[in-house]
Structures are given as structure tokens and as C-alpha cells.
Amino acid sequence: MDYDLKKIFDCFVTEGTYLNGESFGSGHIHETFLIRTFQPDNDNYILQKINSTVFRNIPELQENLERVTVHLQKKIAAIPGSDIKRECLQLIFARNGKSWHIDSYGNYWRMFVFIENHRSYDIVDSPDKAYEGGKAIGRFQALLADLSGDPLYETIPSFHNVEMRIENFMKILKKDPAGRVKETEKETDFILKRTEKMRIIEILGREGKIPVRITHNDTKFNNILFDENGKSLCIIDLDTVMPGYFHSDFGDAIRTGANIAAEDEKELSKIKMDINLFGAYAGGYLTETRNTLNAIEKEYLAFAPLLMTYEQALRFLSDYLDGDKYYRIQFEHHNLQRTRAQIRLLESMEQQYGEMKRIIKKLT
Ligand code: ADP
Ligand code: GN1
Ligand code: MG
Questions:
Q1: Which atom of ligand 2 is closest in space to residue 252's alpha carbon?
Q2: pLDDT mean over 301-318
Q3: pTM
Q4: 127-363 CATH choice from 3.30.300.30, 3.90.1200.10, 3.40.190.10, 3.40.640.10
Q5: Is any ligand 1 atom within 6 A of the Cβ of residue 25?
Q6: DSSP 3-state assignment of 29?
Q7: Beta pairing partners, 243
């Protein structure tokens, strides 16, 4: 889709003037563009067309984002030697006084300062990066623990409620809206065999054994930006920062950061969870959170990557059966390929679960 990026950019309050704009990044949700400004000394920007199918209430989404980014900016600015421009996501306001702009087609747009010279990793190539990523997520959770005021809005209701996602999957199976159920019997079987086991975090939450905390909820490893020296810089993609369980963040970062292959790898034999990357991430994460997590949270930490990989397989498969309505896809059977890759990854984790539990026990 072609957009008049300059016209949209001009609706925001910026110092520099528009030079050019191009598609940027590999996110699955929004349409993201890097906007370069004419003046070399001025900031460049990330302009996003917000996915309004996924996020149904954009004023609430943006209010969360404003609160979270301002809170993080204040806290990070107080750390000696910090670089606020690169360590915090910074929203740019539109000329209408809001942090979003609606174009003449009814599309919602928002803008951030572009974090220069960052690196982001779809696949992690060293335990050092995994450790650093773990520390960054742990620190992020700690920084948000004292966010004051009302609870954040639930920008996507029941986002990581796997029981609800299973229920929804059953409905889709019954309805078969895209006529694809028949070709996914093997994958569906795999999912259905594990439904009981995967409910445990929800059950512990309901019993009050695992507390609700402010979590990121989308800790895909490429949402952690690094600097040129391999140090973590900034956590981005804050749309789903809201109340949740720490397990979601730990699990999703391992799902994406300890897999030695791509999230959608076609060649299933290439997919494996690397136990060293797992251990390194967990080590970094626990340096920041060891004193916060309660005993039950710690006990179930090793299970979290299995749960989040299961949930992701379930989500990709549900979307495939639903006719590809949620995730941006690059080719026709992309969501099925993604499902198969996540199933393979979960099998790899299941094989190594004993060792994962031993590592966490040692680290806690
Ligand atoms: P999605 O929800 O679609 O994943 P993100 O907010 O994660 O959207 O943005 C997509 C990609 O754009 C990111 O993976 C990252 O590469 C890039 N990106 C987003 N915000 C910034 C920023 N402030 N500075 C630099 N890159 C960014
Ligand atoms: C989406 O936005 P992005 O691409 O970082 C999704 C995550 C999934 C992920 C799978 C709001 O993440 O929940 O785990 O794709 N984000 C949303 O790659 O649904
Ligand atoms: Mg993202």
C-alpha cells in the first residue's frame, strides 16, 4: 500500500523536515516506516500505521503508551550516564495535541524518535547477547513496578489467557471459516493433546499463588534493541505493556531468543532450543528479578517457554484456520509454516525440560 508519508509526517510536531521514508523492520502487527529528515543534526523518526484490527481502542492504547514512556524516561534520566534519546522510546505528538493522527481514510498513525545505530536480532548468535537481553527485560519489569495511578488498560483483552485462546480455537475448529481444518489434523492433534497441561499458570494465578504484575507481554527478542557494542539499549513495542504474569515475558523471550532457527523456519530439522542460550538469558534475567519473584513464580519459570511456544503455535494455527486475519503474512501458507516451526520448537523444549528445570533451580 502506498501512503503519502510526507503529508502524514507533516501532521506531527518535529524539528527536522521530511527527506524520505521507507518500510522498516520485521514486526508482524503494524506498518512501520523509517522517516529520514533533511537536516543531518535532527532526529529521524519511526512512523507507524497502527493496526486497528488488533488494537480496538486506540485512545486507550496511546494513553498507556504515554504513561509508560514518560515513567521510563523519568526513571532512566535519573540514572547517571544514561542516554535518554537511545534508551527510551519517545512518542512524538501530532499537531492536534494527541499522540496519534487520523488520516483522511480513517487510518491511525503515530510517531517515535528513531533510535539510531541500533542492532536487533531475529536470531541470537551468542550467550552474551542472550544474557544481556535477559538483564534488559528484568530491568524493564523492575522499572515499571512503581508506575503510579490506575491500572493500565488491557489493550488486548485476555491476551495471554491460554484457556481463552483454547476455547477460541475450538470455536474456529467447529466453524472452519476458511475450509482449512482438514489439512491441519496433525497440528491440531498436537495442540489438543496438551490443553490440560498448559492451563497451570492460569490456575496458579486464579489461586493467588502467582501475582499480577506490570509486564511487557511481547518480549520477542527483536523488541530488545542493542547498541553497536552488544549492550542492550532499549525495549520497544510497548503496546501490550499491561497487567500480566512475569512468565509471559520470560517465556516469550526464550521462545524467540534461544531458538537457533527463524520463528518460521521451513526446514524443521534446523529448529532447536539452545540450552546455553536458555541458561544465559535466565542468568541475566534473574540478576534483576531474583529478589522480586516469589517461590512459586520461580518454580514455574522453566515451564514458561513451553507455555509461550505452545500459545504461539496455537495462535498461528488459529489465525491460519481463520483465514489469516491477524498476523501480517508474506505468502499463502505462512501461518501454517509458522505453526509447524513452533511445534518443532516446543518438542525440542520438551526434550530438554529436565535440564531447563535444573538450570533455573541452580540460578535461583
Ligand atoms: P510490531 O508490533 O509490528 O512488531 P514494533 O513497534 O515492534 O511493531 O516496530 C516494528 C520494528 O520497527 C521493530 O522491530 C524495530 O525494528 C523498528 N522500530 C520500532 N520502533 C523503533 C524506534 N523507536 N527506533 C528504532 N527502530 C524502531
Ligand atoms: C507479534 O508485534 P510483534 O511482531 O513484535 C504479536 C506477538 C507474537 C508475535 C509472534 C500484539 O509481535 O504477540 O508473539 O507477533 N504481537 C501482538 O511473532 O499480537
Ligand atoms: Mg515488534
A1: 14
A2: 98
A3: 0.97
A4: 3.90.1200.10
A5: yes
A6: coil
A7: 214
